[in-house]
Amino acid sequence: NYIKRCLAIPGDTLQIIDQVVHINGKPADVPELAQFKYIVRTDGTRINPMALDKLDITEEI
Asked: Are 37 and 44 in contact (CB under 8 A)?
């Protein structure tokens, strides 16, 4: 893994809302071809599927 682009600094809040990146509550300038698919790894604790649905997170591969 490597860093492709740094969007925020320590202390900032980062959110992705409807595929729009927000830094500290404001929309950020993001390249047109930005990645919005992520791999989520846990410590083995199961993730509640209803919590994922509430956040509109899908299992697309």
From this structure: no
Q: Please spell the DSSP secondary structure of 2-58, one letter per residue.
A: --S-----TT--EEEETTEEEETTEEPP--TT---------SSPPPPHHHHHHTT--
Mean pLDDT over the full length of the chain:
79
10-41 CB burial, b ≥16 within 10 A, e <16: eeeeeeeeeeebebeeeebebeeeeeeeeeee
Task: Count other Cβ atoms within 10 Å, centred on residue 2.
Answer: 3
- DSSP label at residue 59: -
Q: Where are the domains of the chain?
A: 1-61
pTM: 0.47
